[in-house]
Backbone:
């Protein structure tokens, strides 16, 4: 059986109410977490997963939002060294004289 590649994802609860994040994926993958107001949840899941955001209303549980994993992907951050190399390759020292060596 082939091992699933897991993606790094993040969800920020921008509401003033507690929500429940449910992530369902292939091969019986399931993740459920409570996320408090303004809290950030970081998690990993398979590529074909679906994420549901639930809250509790007057009549019971309410589905607030359905998201695909692509909407929640966390992009890798560039290190300072690789960012400097990328900047010199795309702009050159003539546009930024402080990059020239003494």
Residues:
């Amino acid at each position: 059986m082939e091992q699933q590649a897991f993606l790094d994802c993040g969800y920020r609860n921008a509401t003033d109410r507690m929500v429940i994040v449910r992530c369902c994926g292939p091969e019986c993958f399931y993740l459920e977490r409570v996320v408090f107001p303004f809290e950030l949840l970081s998690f990993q899941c398979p590529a074909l997963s679906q994420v549901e955001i639930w809250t509790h209303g007057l009549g019971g549980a309410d589905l607030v939002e359905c998201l695909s994993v692509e909407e929640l992907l966390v992009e890798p951050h560039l290190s300072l060294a690789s960012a400097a190399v990328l900047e010199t390759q795309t702009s050159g020292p003539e546009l930024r004289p402080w990059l020239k060596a003494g």
